[in-house]
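Input.
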Amino acid sequence: MIVTLKDGSKKEYAEAKSVIDIAYDISEGLARAACAGEVNGEVVDLRTVIDSDCELNILTAKDEKGLAVLRHTASHVLAQAVQTLFPDAKVAIGPSIDTGFYYDFDCPPFSRDDLDAIEKEMKKIIKKGAKIERFTKSREDAIAYFQEKNEPYKVELIEDLPEGSEISFYSQGDWTDLCAGPHLMSVKGVKAFKLLSSSSAYWRGSEKNAMLTRIYGTAYASKDELKEHLEQMEEAKKRDHNKLGREMKIFTTVDVIGQGLPLIMPNGVIIMQELQRWIEDEETKRGYVRTKTPLMAKSDLYKISGHWDHYKDGMFVLGDEETDKEVFALRPMTCPFQYYVYKAEQHSYRDLPLRYGETSTLFRNEDSGEMHGLTRVRQFTISEGHLIVRPDQMVKEFKDCIALAQYCLQVLGVEEDVTYHLSKWDPNNKEKYIGDAEVWNQTEAHIRQMLEELNIPFTEDVGEAAFYGPKVDINAKNVYGKEDTMITIQWDALLAEQFDMYYIDENGEKQRPYIIHRTSMGCYERTLAWLIEKYAGMFPTWLCPEQVRVIPISEKFHDYAAKVEAQLKENGIRCSVDQRSEKMGYKIREARLARVPYMLIVGAKEEEEGKVSVRSRYLGDEGMKDLGEFLTSIKEEIKNKTIRKIEVQEENK
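Output.
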């Protein structure tokens, strides 16, 4: 057989060989660093035997997929350590994730002292250096094995596997786990790890199931890499919008109100209003007309759209279908409402495209385990839009929606932080979707071609489409590496039929339009969280709740400070005067901590000459300027939504 390596070179063997044996044949150093193999694009265990021609890539921890294998092995070491110290703990699942790994246990919560003890036990296990062995069992034997060990979650996992599935196990010393793999050859390969936190998580992510205890950890190939990551995590904590947003009085949450229902405080409202005015103005420039639709509707509407059948679990339903004459639901999206705006009058082909925009408040019944600050909430507001177009207009309008999204990202300064995804249907799970395979394949092909024509790198995600059509998802990661969708643009060739939407063509015949569902900037709450973390609260000046703070040197200059404040406000600048009887250094430090972009210091010389001494977060001391000169520059900065770079770092002393 001939094995083609990543660099194009070839190895020829007269007999079958395992991946690890081929790695040793290439280089002993490579074999020692190897975590897994990639055979014809599929990640496999190092124990996998190759017996035919193939392409092979030996994965190390320097590769994302190889690092995932190392972390998965670390999760097994974690589980072994937990069951050594806490024999009554039942094991659930323990995958690798983008930032490390976790394992879920059915047991009481763990304290930090518990985590430290578990870490110590993990080091003992690793030091013993047990080899990791893979073996399989029949379905019946596998179930019996875990029933005897009193591991109900493993039994459930096996019972849910399709008939005929290979059921594999991995053992390390005297500890064994159900697992599809792959894993390292030995626990010795886990050299640098850290347990980060413990939290609660529902079994299989459903609040209808048991509440488990989850331990999060991370692992790297070297201690230096781990140290660098932990330092990044410390920086991430400082930027975490959940912490920083509360400190800056942007939002808060209250248990008595409910999870996923944040209170946006005055500072946060200012930012969201600025974003909303900007977005609505931009959409108007691009030919959008605005609608205002109800926050709820009868179930009849959602039955027509298909949401009742495909999305009911994610909705807040008001009433009981079995006993109430009418059942309502809070809207999870605006599309069916805007369709009836379209249907309120007859349209000809000349009227299209029609671009409807709405700043929509929506409601989605998210699982409590998924809620996080402003990123995932149960009530939120989005820059929603639906374009009703002729089929021949679809591609141009879809591209224009992408262009609008990219413009928004560029203005906010986050265009380099996103990834693009073609979210497709899952042909193996057709009951989740409406429409036939031909329509789905055609629409996915159109989107793929558009993204290629626009030279936008993208990945394809099976099973992530809406139930009525494929979409482009523009995603970004938070400071902890978790990815969320920020902007969505969906191709819909199906719902017009269900709502009997049509236009009159040039021949006087009724024709079905296509629909584009899109957001221009996405969810305001999620965007606000993103911006808090992106800028560590130091927003571009146009978004700052307080843009200027006037600081008089002493009480003698309060009147002049008030005049400066009045002129600033007359010019639309958000500002305040610090009249406290505190030292200047203290007041300057307080303004910096409040992340105010500009301070105007006023004293005798400034009053005499009608000037202000400018300090900014960008250049530090910018010197004395005419107030009119400062007003001109800051107004231009706000109008152009300029993102000034911080060129001088000043300590908050």
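Residues 64-85 form the longest helix (22 residues).
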